[in-house]
Fold these 3 entries.
Entry 1:
Amino acid sequence: MINKDENKLVNNEQENRVTLKGISPWKIAFTRLRKNKLALTGLIVLSILIFLAITADFIAPHGRDHIDLFNINAAPSSEFLLGTDELGRDILSRLIYGGQVSLSVGLIATSIALVIGVTLGAIAGYAGGLIDNVIMRIVDIVMCFPFFVIAIVIASILGPSIWNVMFVIGALSWTGLARIVRAEILTLKEKEFIEAAKSLGLEGHEIITKHLLPNILAPILVFATLGIAGAILVEAGLSFLGFGVRQPQPSWGNMISAAQSMTVLRLRWWQWIPPGFLIFITVLSINFLGDGLRDALDPRLKQ
């Protein structure tokens, strides 16, 4: 019985090798990702949220700042599906428009962190020596300070603004990626194909951009995915405290700030539960997608 099971496992492994032979690594990764139900669910939810944010001007039932003085703090009804706020503005419409801000902050802040982290990490890992020491000491200094405290200080100095929030989050979130990129490049630069590239006369920046970075794209993509979730949470926290996106421009974070009032917290659930739920479901979906990408892009994992 054991021999039959072992033979079956060996045959299945041989069939998988034959099936995957000749297929590009990206196609294999896509096949793995497609089989991950949680990652696929997260991707679908994110696609829906992004679609709603992009088409907000067409699908929002009311204007972003439309005020109805006859329906202030109105409970959910057929006209206002999620009720109104203290100024008579439709909660559902502001949630849809708020998605533009929260998702944009996540994407742009993470892009800033990617540019800084990948650039400095690649230079440190490839150059080594004094340059590596200087860059890594800068990373250590930045990582010594509590992230949220420094973010609040910088945001309070620059003032509450969506662009300032993007800059603050991106400028403080690159250290982990720089360490990852440096470690990967330290391993890869000793490989034979890098020595071959050097022997062909390629310069350092060409080796980094054409040979090293393409081979560490998987951890960078995973970091970017999870970084977006972290940026959305930081923006929500800063906006909740009044250091982020300023009203009347809605974001999910500053809409939750209505819960600072005990009256709203106890009696007007529709003003703070929906934006909190959207933050929760967005971050959860991004984490599911990030885990799926990590599993799909890791060649050491056989599925």
Note: The chain has a mean pLDDT of 82.
Entry 2:
Amino acid sequence: MSESEPEPNVEAAAGGLRSLINERLAKTAELRVAGIDPFPPRTARTHSIGAARAIFEQHEADHADDRNDAAQGLTVTVAGRISAIRNMGRIAFLDLTDDSGQIQVLASRRALGDQWPLLEQLDLGDFLEASGPLIRTRLGEVSVQADSVGMLGKSLRPPPEKFHGLTDIEIRYRQRYLDLIANDEAKDVLRKRSQIVSAMRRFMDERGFLEVETPVLQREAGGAAARPFLTHLNALDEPRQLRIALELHLKRLIVGGFDKVYEIGRVFRNEGIGNRWNPEFTMLESYEAYTDYHGVANMLEAALPRIALDVTGLTTVPWRGDEIDFTAPFRRITMVEAVQEFVGVDFRDFPTVDAMEGLLRECGVAIPPDAGWGKLFDELVSERVEPNLQQPTFLLDYPLAISPLAKKTEYDETLVERFELFVGGWELANAYTELNDPVDQRGRFEEQVQLKAAGDDEAEQMDEDFLIALEHGMPPTGGLGMGMDRLAMLLTNSPSIRDVILFPQMRKLDD
């Protein structure tokens, strides 16, 4: 067999699919010949499937003493995708599914009359409407006893086999619509992700925060140590970068007099793809004047149990065979204490690049090439500290070298008032007492520019307009950034970020 010839089973599978598509195309043509539009513009649906089932069950409960009257007057028109067909010649049972649930349709040749031939043209995956009274069959199944049916949309490709579920990970992520059709669990996870975002928004609104929107296209994408995506704004003939954080524009609003602002939006980082990383992801960032990072921590301790309870009904959720308890208060430990606990040293005793490299070698941690002190320290913490922080833990007071936007602590000028919240061994949130000294901020930006010139393409960029804003004065402020995708992963026990993003980035496949 030559390399250009497909594997026999692949060729057979492709031929089998093409045959099925051709059969469905032929049925579509036959429907048109019979005067039936396979893709009509509207439906006469009166109830969602879930609503139809609910009113029938309530009607049954209200007429429990008179079964003969239980379904009188309950005539509905429901619509949905056909998920099962059992045609027995003179009677047929079909299962219809919509976003609210599933219901059986009982169709007979006698009741449908001239519409009966339509059933011969139906396939799994087609959309159908059915009208008739609601009944409960002898087997106890709530059903629509159809006196009319109508085609709503012909499916030209067969759906995935729902009984076994769609298990091919590549197909699940690339063709999310098939995943949603076949896997109720995937649909539930993605529905909960939406509920998590809504619950967070409610929480912030109730605390008096103003939701705002800031630019995606920016001259200098700042606010985080990350590599941006580059683009061009044709109307102005100027380069632009996709934002890597929401921070610097939100802090401009604090300068402008809004005391509490937040945004939930997409940010873009031109970096790796993995179980915890997607090049575009959803961030919550909030900034509150007249508070500090302790106030932000207190806010998170109120928010996370509330959101967990709203979405899951519990404040303790399963995670990788264990449980995470979001009940407040969370553990609080400084970075100095954490490194002493899990590495056995005071990292301030290793102030140079050479010393930190030696510590990493001693700890068996790989040394990134051409890394500065901050990146080396970050590798040490990622490998030796973070995996130990399974229950919600605030890790406080970070080295200044890796925190160019945070205010220095009062007790040690080499540390800043910053925390990261770790849950399940992962960073979930990052917060600062924001640096509001424009002279200090300019100096730190200049240090970042030097790092970028030395080859660190993740270093912060100089943002002159932000510095001008800061020079107009900003009050003490507590700022927060939290990954909504990671929160969704934790609350749904999902091992990959792709499970909680509807359309994750994937490598292009050859045709």
Note: The chain has 15 helices and 19 strands.
Entry 3:
Amino acid sequence: MDYIVANHRFTIRGKAPQIFQKHFTCGHPFQTINNSNTEEKFTVVLDSHLEDWSHKPDLFSQRKKISVFEYENSVCEIFQCKNEYLIRLEFKDKKDALLIVSENNNTVFLTNFSSQEQTEIYDFQFLLWLIYGIATLNENTVAIHASTIVYQNQAILFLGESGTGKSTHTHLWQKHIKGSFVLNDDSPIVRIINGKPMAFGSMWSGKSAYYINESYPIAGMVRIVQAKQNTIKKLNKLEALAAVYPSCPPMFAHDKRLSENISEILSSILIETPIFTLYCLPDLDSVSVSFSAIFENLKR
């Protein structure tokens, strides 16, 4: 089963490919057949027999924990072992953890996730997001936590913490600005191509099923802040860095290689892309304010 996201092709292999493919619905728009023109970036091998290193101190004894965080009803730990990675997802209500071990310079990822599992596909979707990030960061590619609208073949990314109103704002654009549509509602992929930041739809869109296999140049990024009136500010480079950086995968910040890759991508974004902070209410006027600032800026 081959997939292409942001022009990166990867393969998922398992013992029951038809069952897996049926339930992996977020991947359907990105599936490709016999695409030999695109080099395979990595492979994910399902149904792998992996021993849980948390129960065996001598297993991967040189591992170093680089991140731990809560995700839904689980705790995710990411380790570095030499130049490769271990990922462990421990659930609060299940006995066995989901495991991933990378091999061959992070081009092969083994996981004990079962290709016959029907109810836990969302957990695998999250693990695949981590795998994709690790495997593609060195290709000027990063997942940005954002809700993304497209207007006149240009993408605008709305950034912010969960609950600040990113999705609300993009849906207001979609409702009130004719011809606009949501590309992705949680984790679009930003890739620098020939020095220009491009936004790609992805198979990771939070709880909204915007699985759209399209890409557009980025017209701007806007960090949403709730306020009692609608105002917008274009940011200088230092302010822009502070606005965009928190929307990059935080679990990679403590790994030298991954954090350096993110820094390089951010440098390209800040050179090419206007960044704003929108202080707003969830109303039509906030759409007018952000729309005017972004597209007036492009005319200059």
Note: The mean pLDDT is 90.
